[in-house]
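User: Could you go from structure to sequence for me? I need the amino acid at each position, not a summary. Structure tokens:
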């Protein structure tokens, strides 16, 4: 396990320097009652906590076994897309599903259209 993963914040209170996103998400929670059912596009410079924020959102809306993360655009191919479509028909016991797509700048226009 890499150092940044070992010490990654596991709760919102430990996320330092991202007051704007925490406030925005708190507002969504107050108005909608939950973060579930929406899509979030988290952007920013490298090392600013985008993946950490995305993982905290994912943990809030889905159980750990229902979080699917794509860290490399080459992982997202036609077979992966078919699997996502199959999985959406099966609701897990618990909160729901969450898909994380890291490094979307590397996705091809076709991959983005398919999503």
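Assistant: Here is the amino acid at each position, in order:
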């Amino acid at each position: 396990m890499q150092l940044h993963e070992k010490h990654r914040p596991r709760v919102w209170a430990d996320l330092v320097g991202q007051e704007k996103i925490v406030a925005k998400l708190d507002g969504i929670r107050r108005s909608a009652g939950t973060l579930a059912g929406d899509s979030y596009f988290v952007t920013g410079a490298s090392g600013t906590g985008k993946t950490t924020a995305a993982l905290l959102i994912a943990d809030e809306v889905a159980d750990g076994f229902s979080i699917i993360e794509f860290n490399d655009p080459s992982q997202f191919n036609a077979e992966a897309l078919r699997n996502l479509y199959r999985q959406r028909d099966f609701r897990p016991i618990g909160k729901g599903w969450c898909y994380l797509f890291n490094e979307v700048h590397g996705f091809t226009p076709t991959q983005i259209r398919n999503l």
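One structural detail worth keeping in mind: The radius of gyration is 15 Å.
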